[in-house]
Design a protein that fits this description.
The protein is of the alpha/beta class. 38% of the residues lie in helices and 17% in strands. It has helices at 2-33, 46-49, 79-82, 92-100, 119-129, 147-152, 189-197, 202-214, 232-239, 264-286, 322-333, 359-374; strands at 40-41, 71-77, 107-113, 137-141, 155-156, 161-162, 167-169, 172-174, 182-183, 229-230, 290-297, 309-313, 316-320, 338-342, 349-351, 354-357. It has a five-stranded parallel sheet. Strand 7 (167-169) and strand 8 form a beta hairpin. The radius of gyration is 25 Å and the shape is globular. The chain starts with a helix and ends in an 8-residue tail after the last helix. 31% of the residues are buried.
């Protein structure tokens, strides 16, 4: 019996050693072919989306070249600046530079922007820009429908793509979680392979952590409402139950800025975004530049606030308020140099279902912005 047990033990030990060597060989092979790769935190879309139209930093737009006496402007933003739906020669940077030449001949405008960027990636990308370049003026175009949401969450999109993220602790800005475009997660390929096929992604783990430990309570819809009700949300959801107002329970929809009363999460998001504004401002001023925020005012934003409106969705009532929307923006921009530029055109969207500004609206916005800048004497160097 003792001999038999010894043989079993020996066979088991041999099997374990064999498995260990097999795993080591598999790991070495995966390391050699570099598969799977570690996920990157943050993104640059230009090389894949618009090849041949990228500057040396990887952003869509002209190359970052200027002379010592040039006045350098950086246009900071998201898809409204990236404008993948326009030819490269019609990007906002080209419009703005053309209009600014009415005030100064030696001006250059460069883009630091990508689709889905919040102020977190904008700040870190600008930080990288200043390592090798300068800017006399940094202009941030704020996208009211989703910039706060992009700052609130550590991931983006349905696949929870990770990005360097910041958060508040006792009112102080913390982070980033890692540097911009830095690989994250384990370097062990077998562990990456297991996670890819069977486990949760880093993004899934991170979003769960944020919801559990960092983000305060989101908007709580009403169960009853006695006033007039709009049923259009429910009708949209009935047609498209998989996509319509997806994420509204976490305020991850464009309408979130109008929800009233303001939730703890929206209050937190405003404070977080203001902290990021402050970091961008300090960074710009430390590099001898001036920081300005601007946003377009669409026709509906310039209408009378009117009454609050209730929308029914799956038994819940969501109260929307233009007044609340403007209060949120007022608190967000207070203390920063900013300009809210009216778009006095009825046709301002790329398409009916696409909220991005069309060519006419971008042209008008850049012209008005250039007039503001030109009238302020910003071209006089310090």
């Amino acid at each position: 019996m003792m001999i038999k047990n010894g043989q079993v033990l020996k066979a088991t030990f041999t099997l374990l050693i064999g498995c260990l060597f097999a795993l080591i060989i598999a790991e070495m092979f995966l390391q050699i072919i570099d598969f799977p790769t570690r996920p990157i935190s943050g993104w640059l879309n230009c090389k894949n989306k618009n090849p041949g139209q990228c500057n040396s930093m990887g952003f869509r737009g002209v190359e970052i070249n200027y002379e010592p006496d040039d006045f350098v402007v950086v246009l900071l933003g998201d898809s409204e600046v990236y404008t993948s739906y326009f030819p490269v020669e019609q990007m906002p940077e080209r419009h703005l530079e053309s209009f600014l030449r009415q005030y100064i001949d030696n001006v250059k405008v460069f883009t630091i922007a990508d689709m889905g960027y919040g102020q977190d990636q904008q700040y870190l990308a600008l930080k990288k820009y200043f390592e090798n370049h300068r800017a006399d003026l940094v202009l941030l175009i704020f996208t009211a429908r989703n910039d706060i949401d992009n700052n609130l969450y550590p991931t983006s999109g349905g696949n929870n793509t990770i990005k360097p993220s910041f958060w508040l602790k006792d009112g102080k800005l913390m982070g980033p979680t890692e540097e911009w475009l830095e690989p994250v997660g384990t370097k062990i390929k077998l562990a990456l392979l297991w996670r890819f096929y069977f486990g949760k992604s880093i993004g899934e783990h991170r979003i769960e952590k944020w919801k559990k430990n960092i983000l305060p309570s989101s908007y709580k819809p009403f169960k009853q409402y006695d006033g007039e009700v709009d049923y259009s949300w429910q009708e949209q959801w009935n047609k498209h139950p998989q996509t319509a107002y997806k994420g509204i329970e976490y305020e991850r929809v464009g309408e979130s800025m109008k929800l009233t009363p303001r939730s703890e999460m929206r209050e937190y998001g405003i404070k977080l975004t203001r902290k990021l504004f402050s970091e961008i401002k300090k960074l710009t001023e430390a590099n001898s530049g001036r920081f300005i925020i601007f946003k377009e005012e669409r026709p509906w934003e310039m209408e009378d606030a009117g009454k609050d409106k209730a929308y029914l969705l799956n038994g819940n009532y969501y109260i929307m308020s233009i007044r609340q929307y403007h209060d949120n923006l007022k608190e967000l921009f207070d203390g920063f140099e900013h300009y809210r530029i009216p778009l006095n055109v009825d046709d301002y969207r790329v398409e009916e279902e696409d909220f991005h500004l069309n060519h006419q609206a971008v042209d008008l916005l850049m012209e008005e912005l250039s007039n503001i800048i030109g009238g302020k004497g910003y071209f006089k160097r310090k």
